[in-house]
C-alpha cells in the first residue's frame, strides 16, 4: 500500500466533486433531501459553520496516515473531507474530535456531527445510532504469524481448534462466533492494538480484522505477520457507514453526499489511491 501520497493527489481526487450526481437512496439511509436543504448554511451542525468529525485514537492506516486524521491522507480521512466538501464545508471548516469505538456505537448524544471509524452497518447498531449510506464494501480476514498452528490453513475447519480473538463489539468478533465457530470461546480485546500484542505474544493463534487493516498490520506492525485468508460475505454484504446521532437531522444530507460521491466515481478513485494494494487475499472455504 502507498501511505506517502501527497496532498496534491488528494486535491485531484476532491476535484471530482463537481461531477457529483444524486444516486438512488441506499437501504440504510432515509429518502433523499432536496439540494437546497443540504447546504452548509442550512445544516444544523454541532457548531455553526463547522463540521465536527469523530474517529478513534490512535487513527490507524491505511484508513489514516501518521495518526493524523486532519492531514487528508488515508482512505477514511480522504472520504471524510470529500463528504465535507460535498456538503459545502472547506477543509478549514472541519474539526476532528476523538471518539472511542465503544462510545460511537452506544446510545446517547454524540460530540460529533458524524463519525468515521470502520464502523460496519448492522441492524442491531441501527437501533442506537443512525448510519449514512455505505462508503466502503468490506470483507473480514484472519491474520497470524509465521510458524503458528494456522499459518497454512486453507479451510474454515482448520481454524476450529485455534485460539482466536478480535476487538470487542465488532463484526470481526461476530465473524469468529458466527462464521468460524471455533471450539474455544474467542478472546475479546478493547482495541486492535491490544489484540495485536496478544497475537505477537502467542496468547492467541489468530486475529480477525477487516481486510485492509489485515494488510496494514501484517506489513507494517507485526513481525512475521501474514494473512491466512479472508471470509466470504453473506447476505447483502458488509459495509462501513458514517455514524450519526439517532434521529439526526443531518443523516439524510450526509447519505445524499455519500451517494453522490459513489455515483461520481469519487469513492472508487479514493479507494484506488489508498487501498489499491489491500484487496487480494485467498478466501477460506
Please give a handful of descriptors for the protein shown.
285 residues; D-Maltodextrin-Binding Protein, domain 2; five-stranded mixed sheet; three-stranded parallel sheet; 28% helix; disordered N terminus
Explain what this protein looks like in three dimensions.
The structure is a single chain. The chain has 285 residues and is of the alpha/beta class. It has 2 domains: 7-137 and 240-274, 3-Layer(aba) Sandwich (D-Maltodextrin-Binding Protein, domain 2), CATH 3.40.190; 140-230, D-Maltodextrin-Binding Protein, domain 2, CATH 3.40.190.10. It is built from 9 helices and 10 strands. The chain has helices at residues 7-14, 75-86, 101-104, 123-126, 171-180, 192-200, 211-221, 251-263, 266-274, and strands spanning 51-55, 94-98, 114-115, 129-138, 140-145, 164-167, 187-189, 206-210, 225-230, 238-245. The strands form 3 sheets. The chain has a 5-stranded mixed beta sheet. Helix 2 links the parallel strand 1 and strand 2 (94-98). Helix 1 packs antiparallel against helix 9 (266-274). Mean pLDDT is 88; it is low at 1-35.
Strand order within the widest sheet?
A: 7-6-8-5-9
The total of helices stands at 9
- Could you spell the SSE succession in H and E letters? HEHEHEHEEEHEHEHEEHH
Share in β-strands: 15-25%
Q: How much helicity do the residues have?
A: 25-40%
Based on CA atoms alone, the radius of gyration comes out at 19 Å
Please report the first level of CATH classification, the CATH class of the largest domain. Alpha Beta
CATH fold descriptor of the largest domain: D-Maltodextrin-Binding Protein, domain 2
CATH architect. name of the largest domain: 3-Layer(aba) Sandwich
Amino acid at each position: 500500500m502507498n501511505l506517502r501520497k501527497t496532498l496534491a493527489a488528494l486535491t485531484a481526487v476532491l476535484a471530482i466533486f463537481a461531477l457529483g450526481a444524486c444516486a438512488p437512496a441506499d437501504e440504510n439511509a432515509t429518502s433523499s433531501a432536496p439540494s437546497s436543504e443540504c447546504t452548509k448554511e442550512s445544516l444544523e451542525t454541532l457548531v455553526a459553520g463547522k463540521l465536527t468529525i469523530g474517529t478513534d485514537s490512535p487513527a490507524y492506516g491505511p484508513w489514516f496516515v501518521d495518526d493524523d486524521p486532519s492531514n487528508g491522507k488515508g482512505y477514511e480521512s480522504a472520504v471524510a473531507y470529500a463528504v465535507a466538501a460535498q456538503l459545502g464545508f472547506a477543509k478549514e471548516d472541519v474539526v476532528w474530535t476523538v471518539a472511542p469505538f465503544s462510545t460511537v456505537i452506544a446510545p446517547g448524544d454524540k460530540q460529533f456531527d458524524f463519525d468515521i471509524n470502520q464502523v460496519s452497518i448492522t441492524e442491531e447498531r441501527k437501533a442506537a445510532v443512525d448510519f449514512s449510506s455505505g462508503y466502503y464494501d468490506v470483507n473480514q480476514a484472519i491474520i497470524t504469524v509465521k510458524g503458528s498452528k494456522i499459518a497454512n490453513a486453507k479451510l474454515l475447519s482448520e481454524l476450529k481448534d485455534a485460539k482466536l480473538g478480535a476487538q470487542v463489539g465488532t463484526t470481526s468478533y461476530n465473524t469468529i462466533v458466527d462464521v468460524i465457530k471455533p471450539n474455544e470461546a474467542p478472546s475479546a480485546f478493547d482495541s486492535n492494538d491490544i489484540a495485536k500484542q496478544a497475537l505477537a505474544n502467542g496468547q492467541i493463534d489468530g486475529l480477525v480484522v477487516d481486510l485492509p487493516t489485515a494488510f496494514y498490520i501484517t506489513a507494517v506492525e507485526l513481525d512475521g505477520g501474514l494473512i491466512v485468508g479472508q471470509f466470504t460475505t453473506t447476505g447483502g454484504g458488509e459495509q462501513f457507514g458514517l455514524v450519526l446521532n439517532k434521529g439526526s437531522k443531518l443523516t439524510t444530507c450526509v447519505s445524499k453526499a455519500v451517494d453522490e460521491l459513489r455515483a461520481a466515481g469519487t469513492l472508487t478513485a479514493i479507494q484506488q489511491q489508498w487501498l489499491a494494494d489491500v484487496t487480494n487475499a485467498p478466501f477460506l472455504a
